[in-house]
Design a protein that fits this description.
6-stranded mixed beta sheet, 4-stranded mixed beta sheet, 15 strands, extended, disordered C terminus
Length: about 650
């Protein structure tokens, strides 16, 4: 043991095998979090802070400050990375001051501000250190080093805003989508206050001109083709998203690929071809269809198919009656012959050239990025002409049906499906956990995979977010959009429904309930609460259980309520919220004046009345708006009296 004299205490180099944690150490719990980083730092930089110990019997020492460092060194010794006789500097103090010093050592120290840490890592990179090297020396993941460097490169003005607690770390992360400092600062200054606190609004604004690499258009073109054509992408280090930075190029590549499909269809002789990445259901549903048929098939092949079909019907009846081994063997042999004939006939299945002139194709892009081609669509204006053609072709002989691979009659298939359904219902009823998962999966898949409608809350929110000069988005739109953004959605990424369901089933129950709650929320329809004396609905009872105050979301304004009332109704409201005296004093005022005064009063209650009036202005709601059902319930006696009357 080597010793040096300090002005106040004794500093000694003591071997690890002589150190034990003291019962006077204020830190009772040694956290495992960050232990690997601490070990890596000790190996790379040595022990940068001495331990604090008190003397014990038999030449041992008890550690009152530095328990994590002691455990990290012992772990390194066990791994063979430090020698068994490794010694560390220790400050020896008296037992009298041990607890106080331990508490001070664990309490007074202040961790480095994250922004300072970001810049320090970035400076190490600039000095020539590789990210992988830094990660190893500090015992952290290389991706974490890259994230900290990315945060250090945000505009200095925004980094300072984060230092001054004017911005959350999540919002700072959102700005890293772009490296353009001017754009970052310009966006920050343009955002409304509620948007500045919303990472999703920031990220949406910065990626407004980019396209998600997982979008169906990007999948249709293909990332390799996009990059080969000179495209560039940007990955979000703090999420799983990848954005394509050249949407115009992506659109040109998509148009070129769709134009190639158009030329192929034109060569097939179709009368019209419409292309739209989104499927036009109105157009498709208005159209009837022509069906493919056998065209130019050899007569002997058709005759053979007809003979085999008749033979199979005869054998099927025989099997139903006898189920003899011979009939079963014959059935199998004929099915094999039918398969061979159908394989030859498939080459002759297509659309009649004369029919195709009056029909067309609609080309769209599916959610998986594959081209979806609807062939044989007949617009309403062409149906009569096509009907004449079909009647003229009626004498060409009955069509030959190429059966499905299992060769089951359609009536039999429907019967089997019905039997399977009844069995499925029994088993599903016996497995509530699976039923719960399937119910939420189907509802959430439909809700989260569909684009927002023009009347939906998400579009309203997005419209407000993209136009910062408009009024602040309504509180309820912001709240619902925020709830949607917080929902788990990674389970939607797999391409097949089976894989998505398996991913969904791994979610914790709390996440599944959140998804269910959101789906149920979107099923609610416009409805005012039941009037006093009316039967209270389950809807009203459920909303009452939330204990939410509608006034926190909605306040009467000139536009949404007041202008649509009569003058007498406005005076009645003024009596409720501003008092009888105010109402009497202004009972001769014009309706427009009353609307304006009430609008200002509801907008700023503190400036338009005493404390009691301000409270009424903050909480007043029209009849039927509140969720509280207590006011709707009349005493049982009154109800009985009404019935008697």
């Amino acid at each position: 043991m080597t010793t040096t004299e300090n002005t106040t205490n004794l500093i000694s180099s003591i071997a690890i095998d002589k150190l034990e944690k003291s019962p006077l150490n204020a830190r009772r719990t040694v956290a495992k979090i960050g232990m690997e980083e601490l070990k890596a730092s000790i190996l790379a930089h040595g022990l940068m802070q001495n331990l604090v110990v008190t003397g014990a019997a038999d030449g041992a020492f008890l550690v009152i400050a530095g328990g994590r460092r002691l455990e990290a060194i012992r772990s390194l010794q066990a791994e063979g990375k430090l020698p068994a006789d490794f010694a560390v500097p220790c400050q020896i103090v008296t037992e009298e001051h041990a607890l106080e010093m331990s508490l001070a050592e664990n309490t007074v120290r202040l961790a480095m501000h994250p922004a300072d840490q970001f810049e320090a890592f970035a400076e190490l990179i600039e000095q020539g250190h590789a990210a992988a090297q830094i990660a190893e020396r500090f015992g952290i993941d290389e991706r974490l080093v890259l994230k900290r460097m990315k945060l250090a490169r945000v505009a200095p003005q925004l980094l300072q805003e984060y230092r001054d607690d004017g911005m959350t770390l999540e919002c700072l992360m959102a700005y890293t989508i772009t490296d353009d400092h001017k754009r970052q600062v310009k966006l920050y200054k343009s955002l409304q206050d509620w948007q500045k606190e919303d990472p999703s609004s920031i990220r949406d604004a910065l990626t407004e001109k980019m396209i998600d690499a997982s979008s169906k258009l990007a999948r249709f073109v293909g990332l390799d083709a996009y990059m080969a054509a000179g495209g560039s992408s940007r990955a979000d280090l703090f999420g799983d998203e990848v954005y394509l930075e050249k949407p115009a190029l992506l659109n040109r590549l998509a148009e070129k690929k769709l134009d190639g499909i158009r030329k192929e269809l034109e060569a097939e002789g179709w009368g019209w071809i419409e292309i739209n990445p989104e499927r036009d259901w109105n157009l498709v549903n208005r159209c009837s269809r022509i069906e493919p048929r056998l065209i130019g098939a050899p007569a002997e092949l058709i005759d053979l198919k007809t003979q085999l079909d008749a033979e199979m019907e005869r054998i099927d009846r025989m099997v139903d009656d006898t189920e003899s081994d011979e009939s079963l063997r014959r059935q199998q042999a004929v099915r094999g012959q039918i398969d061979q004939v159908e394989q030859q006939l498939v080459r002759f299945v297509g659309f009649d050239a004369g029919h195709k002139v009056l029909a067309g194709c609609f080309v769209s892009i599916g959610q998986d990025g594959a081209a979806f081609i609807d062939k044989g669509l007949v617009k309403p204006e062409h149906r009569k002409r096509l009907a004449h053609l079909l009647n003229a072709d009626a004498d060409h002989g009955r069509p030959i049906k190429i059966e499905s691979k299992d060769h089951l009659p359609e009536t039999l298939r429907r019967g089997l499906a019905a039997d399977r359904l009844r069995i499925a219902q029994v088993e599903m009823a016996k497995h509530p956990e699976i039923a719960f998962d399937l119910l939420i999966f189907q509802a959430a898949s439909e809700v989260l995979d569909e684009p927002s409608t023009a009347d939906g809350p998400n579009v309203c929110f997005q419209r407000s977010a993209k136009s910062t000069s408009q009024k602040q988005a309504p509180a309820e739109h912001i709240a619902l959009a925020e709830i949607k953004r917080s929902l788990p959605v990674d389970w939607l990424k797999p391409r097949t429904e089976t894989a998505r369901f398996e991913a969904f089933r791994t979610l914790p129950d709390a996440a599944k309930r959140e998804l269910l709650a959101y789906c149920v929320a979107l099923t609610l329809r416009p409805k005012l609460a039941s009037a006093a004396g009316e039967e209270i609905t389950a809807y009203d009872a459920a909303m009452s259980l939330t204990t939410a105050n509608v006034a926190d979301y909605w306040r009467p304004t000139k536009d949404n309520y007041l202008e649509r009332l009569t003058r007498d109704q406005l005076l009645a409201i003024s009596r409720d919220v501003l008092g009888e005296a105010w109402s009497q004093a202004h009972h001769k005022e014009k309706k427009s004046w009353l609307v304006d005064r009430l609008d200002r009063a509801f907008a700023d209650p503190e400036k338009h009345g005493r404390a009691e009036q301000a409270a009424k202005l903050k909480s007043w709601l029209p009849a039927g708006m509140a969720f509280d059902i207590a006011a709707m319930v009349k005493p049982a006696k009154a109800k009985k009296t009404r019935k008697a009357a």
